[in-house]
């Protein structure tokens, strides 16, 4: 679809170029107002109008502005949800999958690690060739260059900045701020799982720097999901702990510090949040996300509703929104989609809640009184469980199911043990746009080699494998480790600049991702690591998520997002 639209656009640009000399106009395809040039002929005017219309369509399709930046084009997502992927694209994907399956045996742990090593070697070879040719890496002008126009002006780094801060004779020190207390304390378990994976690396396959092993050491700070605390701890990690890189958890927390970390030239990859703002390789080149963007999730909710609730359209939708930057990303994203699709959504009611609120009774009572056909939980942590419980107790669950409607819980609350099991039968039949990641406690996956590897390691360390958020630590730790290994093998060895270059070039098979979900970056062109998901319905009896329909993957199609902190949305 992208190719088809591009050919149409090129044809229009060619036609426009025939009259450009006479018009004296600007044919810059990046300017949405470029079609207002005066012309001397009716034919030229019609070409101008056609270009205006095409550019407007392109801008709308690509989500270039507004809250839905950071997502693929709406038509691409809706086509994928409807199973209308282009034949040519499917053939290419099938060919690639067949080739990978012939080369590596993903049914064994050895095969998974062999594939990882082969992919790293390929990335290292490609980057090394470019570095030695002077195309990538830090040039004499102080500009760090990478794939697809990726650049960082290293001249702007602080005078006392070092490319090897955090690397000692025995360690690579990595800072992490997270919530290990407060209402979202469950997410702090991710840090324990991440550390567990790094301990396995240290003991079994250490990162080599200059020919000698270095232990990966996590320096963890509990900010209780309070952004002001995150700011203090990041300062402490930089000034006192001398860390190599920093990983943050939470959208408001990361937004509070990502300007500083980019000004300080400190890598902040794979942050633990799906906010679209992390897809900004121009203004925040040191920061990346990992999980599916909340903007993409918003579009997937809408596309699912259009595809599956045809008999109820247009529907009334209510959203329970966490009242902070995290919830705002969801609220703005779905609100923009709803306003553009009034044939699908007749009314949309967002109801916000305090992130620290001990109950959600009042908010859920308001939502029940609205009598929605669709309920979407746009929150995180324990409030996800509370929303399911309240919906069951106040009748919302029964009312929506009686109508043939749907209740969604967010991708960040897929954990069965933490958020579904405690809700009992009230969790049965809830849907999720799951973000393409396997739950390590789901019976469907527990026998897979990498999932079994995770659970065995957790158990050996005295961590309960039934807590799936421990395994989420592996989800973040795995690509982190792969990027560190790539960087260590590049000319110049493990440095901050090599690390961010490796991150921005990473293309891996992630063994915790569902088949059909890609995990890759491509410099400034593709700033989102995972851009796909499954649709799943929870079976409370079997304590499992049943995948319904095909996997949706729009890898490489999400627009970048320069987030507007004051007004919200991508600009």
Can you walk through the features of this model?
The chain has 17 helices and 18 strands. It has 571 residues and is an alpha/beta fold. It has a seven-stranded mixed sheet with strand order 9-8-10-11-12-16-17, with helices on both faces. A four-stranded mixed sheet has the order 5-6-4-7, sandwiched between helices. The model is unreliable at 1-65 and 94-98 (pLDDT under 50).
Helix content: 40-55%
Distance between the termini: 24 Å
Biggest sheet, open or closed, and with what strands and sense? 7 strands, mixed
The coarse silhouette is globular
Q: How many β-strands, per DSSP?
A: 18
Q: What's the arrangement of strands in the largest beta sheet?
A: 9-8-10-11-12-16-17
Number of helices: 17
Low-confidence stretches: 1-65, 94-98
- The secondary structure category is alpha/beta
As a whole number of angstroms, the C-alpha radius of gyration is 24 Å
Mean pLDDT: 88
Query: Strand share of the residues?
Result: 5-15%
Set down the secondary structure blueprint:
Elements: H1 2-23, H2 42-62, H3 74-81, H4 87-103, H5 109-132, E1 137-138, E2 143-145, E3 151-153, E4 171-178, H6 189-204, E5 207-209, E6 212-222, H7 227-239, E7 245-248, H8 251-263, H9 294-308, E8 315-322, H10 325-340, E9 345-353, H11 361-370, E10 374-378, H12 382-393, H13 396-403, E11 406-409, H14 416-420, E12 431-433, H15 449-460, H16 468-488, H17 496-503, E13 507-508, E14 519-520, E15 532-533, E16 535-539, E17 544-547, E18 552-553
Parallel strand pairs: 4-6, 4-7, 8-9, 8-10, 10-11, 11-12
Antiparallel strand pairs: 1-2, 2-3, 5-6, 12-16, 13-14, 15-18, 16-17
Helix pairs in contact: 1-2, 3-9, 5-16, 6-16, 7-8, 9-10, 16-17
């Amino acid at each position: 679809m992208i190719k088809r639209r591009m050919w149409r656009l090129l044809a229009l640009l060619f036609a426009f170029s025939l009259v450009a000399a006479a018009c004296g106009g600007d044919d810059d395809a990046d300017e949405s107002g470029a079609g207002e040039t005066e012309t001397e002929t009716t034919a030229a005017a019609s070409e101008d109008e056609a270009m205006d219309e095409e550019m407007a369509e392109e801008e709308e399709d690509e989500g270039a502005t507004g809250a839905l930046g950071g997502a693929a084009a709406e038509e691409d997502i809706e086509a994928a949800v409807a199973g209308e992927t282009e034949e040519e694209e499917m053939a290419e994907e099938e060919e690639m999958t067949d080739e990978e399956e012939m080369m590596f045996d993903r049914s064994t742990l050895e095969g998974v690690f062999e594939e990882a090593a082969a992919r790293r070697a390929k990335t290292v070879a490609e980057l090394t060739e470019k570095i030695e040719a002077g195309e990538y890496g830090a040039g004499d002008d102080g500009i760090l260059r990478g794939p697809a126009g990726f650049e960082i002006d290293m001249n702007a780094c602080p005078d006392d900045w070092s490319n090897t801060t955090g690397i000692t004779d025995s360690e690579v020190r990595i800072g992490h701020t997270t919530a290990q207390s407060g209402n979202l304390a469950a997410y702090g378990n991710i840090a324990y799982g991440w550390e567990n994976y790094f301990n396995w690396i240290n003991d079994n396959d250490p990162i080599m720097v200059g020919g000698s092993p270095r232990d990966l050491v996590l320096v963890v700070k509990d900010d209780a999901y309070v952004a002001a605390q995150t700011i203090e701890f990041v300062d402490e990690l930089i000034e006192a702990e001398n860390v190599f890189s920093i990983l943050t958890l939470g959208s408001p927390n990361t937004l509070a510090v990502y300007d500083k970390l980019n000004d300080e030239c400190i890598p902040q990859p794979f942050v633990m949040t799906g906010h679209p703002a992390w897809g900004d390789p121009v203004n925040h080149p040191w920061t990346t996300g990992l999980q599916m963007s909340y903007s993409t999730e918003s579009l997937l909710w809408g596309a699912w509703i259009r595809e599956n609730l045809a008999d109820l359209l247009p529907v009334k939708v209510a959203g329970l929104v966490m009242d902070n930057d995290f919830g705002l990303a969801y609220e703005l994203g779905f609100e923009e989609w709803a306003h553009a699709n009034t044939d699908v959504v007749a009314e949309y009611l967002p109801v916000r809640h305090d992130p620290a609120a001990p109950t959600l009774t009042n908010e859920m009572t308001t939502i029940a009184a609205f009598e929605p056909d669709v309920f979407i939980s746009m929150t995180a942590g324990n409030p996800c469980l509370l929303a399911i419980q309240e919906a069951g107790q106040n009748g919302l669950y029964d009312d929506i199911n009686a109508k043939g409607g749907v209740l969604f819980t967010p991708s960040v609350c897929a954990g069965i043990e933490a958020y579904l099991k405690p809700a009992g039968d009230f969790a049965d039949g809830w849907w999720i746009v799951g973000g393409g990641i396997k739950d390590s406690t789901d019976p469907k996956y527990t026998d897979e080699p990498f999932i079994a590897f995770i659970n065995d390691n957790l158990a050996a360390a005295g961590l309960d494998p039934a807590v799936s958020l421990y395994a989420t630590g592996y989800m973040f730790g795995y690509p982190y480790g792969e990027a560190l290994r790539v960087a260590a093998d590049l000319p110049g060895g493990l440095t901050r600049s090599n690390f961010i270059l490796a991150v921005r070039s990473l293309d891996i098979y992630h063994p915790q991702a569902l088949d059909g979900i890609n995990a890759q970056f491509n410099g400034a062109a593709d700033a989102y690591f995972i851009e796909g998901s499954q649709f799943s319905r929870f079976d409370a009896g079997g304590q499992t998520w049943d995948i319904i329909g095909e996997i949706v993957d729009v890898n490489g199609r999400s627009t970048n997002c320069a987030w507007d902190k004051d007004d919200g949305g991508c600009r």
